[in-house]
Amino acid sequence: MTPVTLITGGASGIGAATARLLIQQGHKVAITGRDSERLAAFRAPHDGDNLMTLPGDTSEPADVDSAVRLTRQTWGRLDNVVVNAGFSLPGTLGDHTPEAMRMMVLTNVLGPALMVRACVPYLKETRGRILIVGSVAGVKNTPDNLYSVTKWAAHALAENTRLGVTEDGIGVTLLAPGKVDTPFWDNRGGTPEGPVMRAEDVAASILFALSQPEGVDINHLQIRPIGQTN
User: What is the reported pTM?
Assistant: First the structure.
């Protein structure tokens, strides 16, 4: 049976690298994103019916419900959900406007919760898996940083979800990457100096978690580039 995977924030960075890898592995993949042009650019080099692009905002309940429903209706099943969409603001907490703070909390915290809510009924059918992309900023506090707060919340959501669905046969993984060279840094002065991973490196860890034998659940993966000390 061909596995079906839904990835939020799948048009760039870790999400796009994961989508490409899973397609190579034979998955049918649906990706979501707010930028329809970026989605179209990702779609362009892919042929066939193994990729579906779904414009939408992960913090909007109707968009999340629609993405899950369309993926299930199109391919008849849903095996994996990779909750990847998220962003950070430049500067410190004192630099952020309240509206920008609200948007980040909605995207990074409410969005993953909405996706869990929407996908669990379908994953019960397939005994599928949820993977939430967190951050080392959700393991070790970053001073004066609201993004770190949102990632701590995402990490809590992963364990909270695992406790609620493990008896239904659903696997839940929290993946906490360190520094990765992706567009995440575009509004923060560019990729920082020092060791970084590629998005493809993180995608390989996601594939590892999703490919575990039936009955085996990888709950927490924390990965850093060698040389990153924080």
Answer: 0.95
